[in-house]
């Protein structure tokens, strides 16, 4: 199988079986002997074709006499991949993109489909000017959705909530790959010493302005090759996610419950802030994910984290009024972290947002019961959507009069926040979109 055929198999698995691109790619790379250059080509082709998604379909339909979705799924993917190489990959000669796609169409279809693929792709090469979108004046939502490869419903929702200009900035931001953000393990090393160490390992590292332990790596070698990672000197974690433990403000010796905790980014941060004293109960609903928390804790030299398989909706009944502080880093739609996973934007739906909001409310109510009187409850998500954020908290406070909203801004150094609840926007704060609310239990 050549590289394009391998990429096609991955794309087809993602589009037909709803497989996760990173998982299929990892499996592929562990099964086949593929050199570094080919790996990079396959990865770019797979992620690019999937990310540009519906925009490729729109373009292809402009060159086809019958709709793209009326032909077989594998031929659709061959066309998408071919069009992506022609229009978005500068280094691939058009003729190679076209000829190789025709070969794939022969193998996975018949002579008729091969002719179709040849005709459509040659037409794109000869007449690239036909690949146009509606103008912003004609249809701003469709224009932004096509130009920045985002689902139309998402763009419409954001235009309504934050306006056209911010929606455009947000969509553009989501298409830029992030720097690697890491958290210094202050139990083992200072941030300044870690930055020196990272430089010696070939990384370009600078301190984050948002948190005292954050570091941004602009250039670095493959993570798994970095000795400093294996020595437990840092944890990969976005800067905005690091703010959560600071808002929780755990104290040495306390008992903390972290309810939705895998893979343990926040649990291990909390442990470091507690100088590895006291106890943290880190729970999740997936056993295999709990193992990852334990592995991370071990690597980072943390002893106070205990894991337990438990649905967060039951945590309050199992540990009533026992914890000094409880963190609910809730399962969410993840609309704040779209830049991290090129295939994720196409998996989201508006229904998902509504369903999650219900689950989040239930988890929060149960978690509230686990907080001691006088204790702290922190709720966070990596989404920008108000139904999963402010609305969940407002509903919670309306039905739990023994809790009051604390001002989360007091615990972190943030500008542009005009509410006691923190909402970080990717295009404004240059980090993952995150929401953090802090509440105090008075009885
Ligand atoms: C946003 S992630 C947590 C990230 C984690 N706090 C960290 O900082 O590394 C949400 C987690 O919630 C877990 N989860 C989903 N539904 C849950 C439930 N009903 N009870 C407990 N955990 C749940 C998921 O398995 C996932 O690991």
Number of strands: 12
Q: Identify low-pLDDT runs.
A: none
CATH architecture of the largest domain: 3-Layer(aba) Sandwich
In which range does the helix fraction lie?
A: 40-55%
Strand content: 5-15%
Small molecules bound in the structure, each named once: S-adenosylmethionine
| Class by SSE composition | alpha/beta
Number of helices: 18
Q: CATH superfamily membership of the largest domain, which one?
A: Vaccinia Virus protein VP39
Oligomer: single chain
The shape is globular
Helix-strand pattern? HHHHHHHHHEHEEHEHEHEHEHEHEHEEHE
- Calculate Rg over CA atoms: 24 Å
The first-to-last residue Cα distance is: 66 Å
The largest pleated sheet is described as: 8 strands, mixed
Would you give an account of this structure?
49% of the residues lie in helices and 15% in strands. The chain contains 18 helices and 12 strands. Helix 13 links the parallel strand 5 (255-258) and strand 6 (279-284). Helix 8 crosses helix 9. The chain is globular. The protein starts with a helix and ends with a strand.
């Amino acid at each position: 199988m050549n590289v394009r055929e391998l990429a096609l198999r991955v794309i087809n698995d993602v589009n037909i079986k709803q497989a996760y691109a990173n998982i299929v790619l990892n499996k592929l790379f562990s099964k086949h002997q593929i050199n570094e250059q080919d790996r990079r080509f396959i990865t770019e082709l797979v992620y690019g074709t999937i990310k540009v998604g519906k925009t490729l379909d729109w373009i292809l339909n402009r060159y086809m006499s019958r709709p793209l979705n009326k032909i077989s799924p594998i031929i659709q993917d061959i066309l998408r991949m071919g069009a992506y190489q022609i229009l978005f990959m500068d280094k691939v000669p058009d003729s190679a993109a076209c000829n190789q796609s025709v070969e794939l169409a022969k193998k996975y279809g018949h002579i008729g489909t091969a002719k179709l693929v040849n005709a459509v792709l040659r037409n794109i090469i000869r007449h690239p000017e036909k690949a146009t979108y509606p103008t912003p004046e004609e249809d701003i939502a469709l224009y932004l959705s096509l130009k920045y490869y985002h689902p139309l419903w998402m763009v419409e929702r954001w235009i309504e909530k934050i306006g056209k200009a911010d929606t455009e900035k947000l969509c553009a931001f989501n298409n830029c790959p992030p720097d690697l953000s890491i958290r210094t393990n202050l139990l083992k090393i200072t941030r300044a010493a870690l930055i020196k160490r990272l430089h010696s390992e070939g990384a370009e590292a600078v301190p984050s302005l948002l948190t005292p332990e954050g570091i941004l790596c602009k250039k670095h070698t493959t993570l798994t090759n970095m000795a400093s990672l294996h020595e437990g000197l840092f944890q990969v974690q976005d800067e905005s996610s690091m703010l959560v433990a600071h808002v929780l403000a755990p104290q040495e010796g306390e008992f903390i419950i972290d309810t939705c905790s895998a893979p343990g980014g926040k649990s291990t941060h909390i442990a470091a802030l507690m100088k590895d004293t006291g106890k943290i109960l880190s729970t999740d609903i997936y056993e295999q994910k709990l193992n990852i928390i334990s592995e991370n804790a071990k690597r980072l030299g943390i002893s106070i984290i205990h894991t337990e398989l438990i649905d967060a909706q039951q945590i309050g009944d199992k540990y009533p009024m026992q914890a000094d502080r409880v963190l609910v880093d809730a399962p969410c739609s993840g609309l704040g972290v779209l830049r991290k996973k090129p295939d994720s934007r196409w998996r989201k739906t508006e229904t998902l947002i509504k369903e999650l909001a219900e689950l989040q409310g239930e988890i929060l109510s149960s978690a509230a019961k686990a907080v001691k009187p006088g204790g702290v409850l922190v709720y966070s998500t990596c989404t920008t959507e108000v139904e999963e954020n402010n609305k969940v908290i407002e509903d919670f406070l309306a039905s739990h009069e023994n809790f009051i909203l604390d001002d989360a801004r007091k615990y972190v150094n943030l500008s542009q926040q005009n509410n006691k609840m923190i909402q970080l926007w990717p295009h404004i704060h240059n980090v993952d979109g995150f929401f953090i609310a802090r509440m105090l239990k008075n009885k």
